[in-house]
Model the fold of this input.
Amino acid sequence: MNRKFENQYGYFTEDGREYVVKTPFTPRPWGNIISNGDYSLMISQTGSGYSWRGNAGQNRITRSFQDLVKDNWGKYFYIRDLQRNTYWSAAFKPVMHPYQQYQVVHGIGYTRIMQQVEDIASTLTIFVAPDAPLEVIQLTLTNNSSETRELDVTSYAEWLLGFSPDEHREFHKLFIDTSCAGQAVFATKCLWGFPDDKGRWNNVDWPYTAFMAVSEPLKSFDCDKESFIGMYNNDDRPRAMTEPTLAGRTGRFTDAIAALQVAVTLPPGASKTIVFTLGAAENGTEDAHELIARYTSITGAEQAFAALQPFWARFLDREQVETPDDAFNFMTNVWAKYQAISGRLWGKSAFYQVSAGWGFRDQLQDSQVYLVGDPDFARKQLLLHAANQFIEGDVLHWWFTIRGGGPRTNCSDDLLWLPFILHSYLQETVDYDILDEQIPYLNGPAEALYEHCKRAIERSFSRFSPRGVPLMGDHDWNDGLSAVGTLLKGESFWVAEFLHMVLGGFIPLAQRRGDDRFADRCALVRDSLKVALNQHGWDGQWYLMATTDDGLLLGSQTNDEGKIFLMPNIWAVMSGTADGKRAETALASVTQYLLKDYGTLLNYPAFTRPRPDIGYVTRYAPGLRENGGVYTHAATWSVWAYARAGQPELAYEAYRRICPPNRSADIDTYKAEPYVTPGNIDGPLSEYYGRGGWTWYTGSAQWLHRVATHWILGIRPQEDGLLVEPSIPAHWPGFKITRTFRGAVYAIEVENPQRVHGGIRLVTVDGQPHSSHILPVFGDGKTHPVKIVLGT
Ligand code: GLC
Done:
């Protein structure tokens, strides 16, 4: 097997579907977010992590606290040798015992930790069952010594059961009850952090039964942290490891944990597999005992593991690319899609950030990742977000996933993502029926989705400055611009461009529905936005970001910090609001000031002093996150802008620099996982220029996938067919992409004999010449070979 992108910490396997970590000592926790859309877990290369159901903030099952340095909260498995009187753990944490071998494999839906300690090899495979609210841990031990070994294996996890953090632990522990039955321990809690139906707090049950079970007869068990860890001890040296058996404490009066101990005798060369399950069954609808019986065995675990591959194939494999760039292939085929779905849409949690909600704009954008594999999931997401809109057209900025509710704000862009994503969905599916889906408002009766979008647009129309530029409101896409326009005077030039693009997609929809008056109105506003932007938003060499409530300019040559912002300059190109010369000049400024070694910066230079009239973006240390860092989500859009402007080499550069596997070579600078996108990379003013952070939970994953396929490969669904308009680096001899589109498979092979960037010389479909670079819609369930020759 050829190792790809290998460095001192790890490598990709040849097909890119697994990332192998070679040591526990990576520069940051390198993890996996594993989810089935309901039950999720996080695990790092040390074996630390935690589990949740439905929501990591509101319904955490096991406890953990954010600590990237110690990375010391987990569900742990101790292995003890009774004759040698020593113990270690099946992962590096918590015992950190010297090891003979150590390797962690992060895969699609599973993580495997392999090590050898004291001549006992162990393989711990952890995954979430595709169709049940539980995780399975398979632990295989092999005796590689020449003597028979008397071992025991002890599991350990702290129950949290509800909102995280449970700040007042001494209060919360008073409501938990634990018990043991058969080969399992159970935990319930008669308190959850939601009000009851009369609005009374601290008055409802946590409606689940948590369990941990094991496939072997119990040697002993415990549900009390005090007896297990021992007062003033730590989990690397628990008292339990010095006692012959666990204390067996349960009930209402403990500090609740789950610990199961089983005995394992291994003759030389022998192996033994033990299966643990951990989960939470919803009371009344699911039965913890039945779930335990189904999964807590070697065959149960094997069947569940085998189901992972088809489960993920549906989301990942219906579009596969083959280009000369492995980093591009690995991210596009596997990791960006997996990250967007498992991490962002389902798990909604990571090491750096835990979410308790759906972000109105966030998961709508993310849902585009479903469009090729299973657009129905994107459809559901659209309808869900529409249901979180007010009849006045505005929306919740985010809302809690379990019971709803969240902040209503004057954010200026959130609401417009509804028609924006609807447009992408329709380009892929032409499912115009969705427009008639009746969805209630948060404060009003049901209306068709079309009306929801219309209300969002009309609301946006009502928030313009006297000179016709959209108001910034509480902020635009950049949440950190949190004080620029709260008095509803400051303007956002980016929103002008964004709205212009949204209207471009919506006008044909309005016409299609015979809503000509609205279509005409949109067309008028659209034109006026372009005029206003170019009249008031041009700063000479680039577009301004905004004006503040006080009438000051932001993103101008006249500023000494935050002189130039990425967003208004690339979206001017993407939206077509900048014509010829200006588009060229604006992009040239982006290239000059913002396109750096590690990707495209969000603004430059970073703010070094807090500016109360701009907002918290100026309060971050310079170079971090939205303050002059590479904000990866937005950096992906620079790929789109360069491609759209006919600058394919720069498009590829902007892509290549943020494509994580490429950072394997300078990993001690970069630090983050090379297989998932980071939220941000430190900008030039940071002392850690080039350092990646906030991985997994970022909107950049979906967009990295989309700009790669839509704007570099140039395969874009549109109303009348599948457009092929590559914008590739000239050195590529060609590429292949196979993807489903409206019920047929397109096996597209692009040849580039003249080493050009794009431009199509020849198209054949099913072996027949085809006169257009828009591929016809077949919808016949068959595979259609398409051959394309680039050149003139
Ligand atoms: C965060 C938010 C996202 C926002 C971005 C830029 O990622 O979740 O909604 O657009 O920051 O501020």
About this structure: The two ends are 40 Å apart (CA to CA). DSSP finds 18 helices and 42 strands in the chain. The first helix runs from residue 169 to 172.
